[in-house]
Design a protein that fits this description.
The complex is a heterodimer of chains A (about 525) and B (about 180). Chain A is mainly α and about 525 residues long. Chain A is built from 17 helices and no strands. Chain B has helices at about 1-35, 170-184, and strands spanning about 60-65, 75, 80-85, 90-95, 105-115, 120-125, 130-135, 140-150, 160-165. In chain B, strands 3-1-9-5-7 form a five-stranded mixed β-sheet, covered by helices on one side. In chain B, strands 2-4-8-6 form a four-stranded antiparallel β-sheet, with no helix packed on it. Classes of the chains: A mainly alpha (about 525), B alpha+beta (about 180).
Chain lengths: ~525, ~180
């Protein structure tokens, strides 16, 4: 973090700059500092979760058991999922929101700066607690990131209580972050910036924040029920006591499905900022983008049971959830159409952020199509719990959410650091990631359709070749992320000086202020630039 | 700042309500299952007025006993299959033996397949209504008295009634020991 000290010099016109020493980071209420901390934290978690993924892929390199115990393998799949979802993707989006939302709407800071500090500083403690379970007797949680009861209650390791408390803390942090973002966007827009002039990143985050407020408490509720089943003798999920394990899945996925949109809507926002910049055209269909985002959010509450087609839902239910799920393809299709239409006859250039954005559009769409296949209830009985599911959600999360985060970081790095990125290294990172991600996850479609179950450390011999290919791809993808780390640090340290409008086609308030962005921006509300009026 | 205050109050209230909603899903789920008869749960219990039976068709009722993991009891139906006319009262029993050397308490949880049939199966009396305690080596015949509703849809010709036996001795004994402690 100290590397950032040198980059965030207070502007000469400001009355004061950042405090000195560690105190700056512990007590800061500055949205830029907190945004940076969120982003560094999420990068750290990305590497921790990534190492766990590589351990999984190393074990799956060959059939048979060679490197790790099956029990430890289960802990790795569980912790990898939890850390990537709650530790890498979500904090990265909150970090980007912290940095960019006030600058995009012309606000001096977030609406509730002290709560902002608190919502970040809860996270390191929550994840320290979660990761500490690896060193406890009985090991870390081993029941999968979906923690289905009774695996996570009756048959759970003792460390499950720490897991529950960590989830509670992450939930509180997310809810506080969401409240802050909603209050900022609704109350602190510059004069003249109406809701329908809001940059799309702010719109998607506003809707994401509303989703967070609606479903994170439900997650808190379901882990509280687990806690009560484990320690206080209740029987929410214990059939012997009159409860029902299937109830767990309903409550969990009532949270879980909106959660997957929480991890993708801000990505849509980032991509909708980047593509117009490098196509040098206004975003095609702004209003339809807003309505599409809102309808995805509403539909996300009506489709949860498509994760549980095989638990024994009656035919009417299967049909309802199947059609409702397929309906989501419509607003998502509108978005993809709009991105392509934005590029149509634009004067495009292919800098690193744009390359990641383009890869996002293509690869996320592949993930969307495999999602449509999974939505078909009759065939889901074959796909359920196979590597096809793993391939699907990794396609929407890695080249989806993660690529959008990297695109966003590369896009806004000049604004944060005042230096342009080394394009050569950026492109190297992009191509290695793009190739690595496809080598890793594309073969999983095939082995999944052929019947390889997920979350099992061993497999039948006929899956050996594709698994070896996937493992090689995983190590290529994983190691090439070190280039990302190098790029970010190099860009913080130095590089070609960035102008206020770092990218030729960039529009919006954040490009009206100098690069690097001064420690305090928009102390007085700005005049909207021509393009926004 | 009061604009922030009002908004934040509403948002906090919203998240508290959603926390409550998470718990409200539990009874809602049961009500939903009851209303729709989904999930194979039987809700028609207790005495029933017997009228003429429908002899035009006969329903095959298969009885199944399942042991939950680690349940050591011998547990099984006296009759594997019962043929009953809709409206006809039928009596059968499940046999249970506790082969272990200690007193154990069990709870049987019923389930009906197809789930659609669950609401037409009326249990007049069932051992699953209460817990079963058996001393070491003791055996018991556990009665089951049921009627199939005449409104059972025509296309259902057979149904399966399954009981899963759960060992609830640890839970019960902890309650018992807690009560003992209180008395002391």
């Amino acid at each position: 973090m100290s590397t950032l000290d040198t980059t965030l010099h207070a502007d000469a016109h400001e009355h004061h700059g950042p405090a000195k020493g560690m105190g700056r980071w512990l007590f800061t209420t500055n949205h830029k500092d907190i945004g940076s901390m969120y982003l560094w934290f999420s990068l750290l978690m990305f590497f921790v979760g990534g190492c766990m993924a590589l351990m999984i892929r190393a074990e799956l390199f060959q059939p048979g058991l060679q490197l790790i115990e099956p029990g430890f393998f289960n802990q790795m799949t569980t912790m990898h999922g939890l850390i990537m979802v709650f530790g890498a993707v979500m904090p990265a989006f909150v970090g980007l929101a912290n940095w960019m939302v006030p600058m995009m709407i012309g606000a001096p800071d977030m609406a509730l700066p002290r709560m902002n500090n608190w919502s970040f500083w809860i996270l390191p403690f929550a994840f320290a607690m979660l990761i500490s379970t690896l060193f406890m007797e009985g090991g870390a949680p081993n029941f999968g990131w979906t923690f289905y009861a009774p695996l996570s209650t009756t048959y759970a390791p003792p460390s499950v209580t720490y897991f529950i408390f960590a989830i509670h803390m992450m939930g509180i942090s997310s809810i506080m972050g969401a409240i802050n973002i909603i209050a900022t966007i609704l109350n602190m827009r510059a004069p003249g910036m109406t809701m329908m002039k809001l940059p799309l990143f702010c719109w998607t985050w506003l809707i994401t924040a509303l989703l967070l407020i609606a479903v994170m408490p439900v997650l808190a509720g379901v882990v509280t029920m687990m806690l009560m089943d484990i320690h206080f003798g209740t029987s929410f999920f214990d059939a012997g006591g009159g409860g029902d394990p299937v109830l767990f899945q309903h409550v969990f996925w009532f949270f879980g499905h909106p959660e997957v949109y929480i991890m993708i809507l801000p990505a849509f926002g980032i991509i909708s900022q980047i593509i117009p910049t490098f196509a040098r055209k206004r975003l095609f269909g702004y209003a339809s983008m807003v309505y599409a985002t809102a309808s995805i959010a509403v539909l996300s509450f009506l489709v949860w049971a498509h994760h549980m087609f095989t638990v024994g839902i009656p035919l009417a239910g299967e049909l309802f959830f199947m059609y409702a799920t397929m309906l989501i393809a419509v607003p998502t299709g509108v978005k993809v159409f709009n991105w392509v239409a934005t590029m149509f006859r634009g004067s495009m250039t292919f800098e690193t952020p744009m390359l990641f954005a383009l890869a996002f559009v293509v690869l996320f769409t592949i993930g969307g199509f495999s999602g449509l296949m999974l939505a078909i209830a009759p065939v889901d009985f074959q796909y359920h719990d196979t590597y096809f599911v793993v391939a699907h959600f990794h396609y929407v999360l890695v080249p989806g959410a993660i690529f959008s985060i990297m695109a966003g970081v590369y896009y806004w790095l000049p604004k944060w650091t005042g230096h342009m990125l080394d394009e050569r290294m950026g492109k190297l990172h992009f191509w290695l990631s793009f190739i690595g991600v496809n080598i890793t996850f594309f073969p999983m479609h095939f082995i999944g359709l052929a019947g390889m179950p997920r979350r099992i450390p061993d497999y039948a011999l006929q899956f050996a070749d594709f698994n070896m290919v996937a493992s090689i791809g995983a190590f290529l993808f994983g190691l090439s992320q070190l280039i990302f780390l190098w790029n970010v640090i190099a860009c913080v340290r130095g590089g070609r000086k960035a102008e206020a409008r770092a990218w030729e086609g960039a529009e919006g308030l954040e490009w009206e202020i100098p690069s690097p962005a001064p420690y305090h921006t928009f102390a007085t509300p700005p005049q909207l630039p021509e393009s926004l009026r | 700042m009061s604009a922030h205050g009002r908004l934040v109050r509403r948002l906090v209230l919203g998240s508290v309500l959603m926390f409550g909603f998470g718990f409200a899903l539990v009874p809602l789920y049961d009500v939903f299952c009851e209303v729709t008869g989904l999930n194979g749960k039987i809700t028609n219990t207790g005495p029933v007025a017997i009228s003429a039976m429908d002899t035009s068709r006969q329903i095959k009722v298969r009885l199944i006993a399942v042991h939950n993991e680690g349940m050591p009891w011998d547990f099984g139906p006296m009759d594997g299959v019962i043929r009953a006319h809709p409206g006809e009262m039928k009596q059968t029993a499940f046999m249970a033996t506790n082969p272990t050397g200690r007193r154990m308490v069990a709870q049987a949880i019923p389930s009906v397949a197809p789930a659609e049939a669950a609401q037409y199966l009326h249990k007049v009396n069932c051992f699953c209504f209460e817990q079963q305690a058996l001393m070491a080596g003791e055996s018991v015949e556990m009665p089951l008295l049921f009627v199939i509703d005449k409104k059972l849809p025509e296309h259902i010709r057979s149904l399966t009634l399954s009981y899963t036996l759960f060992d609830i001795s640890p839970e019960v004994s902890s309650v018992v020991s807690a009560e003992k402690e209180q008395r002391l």
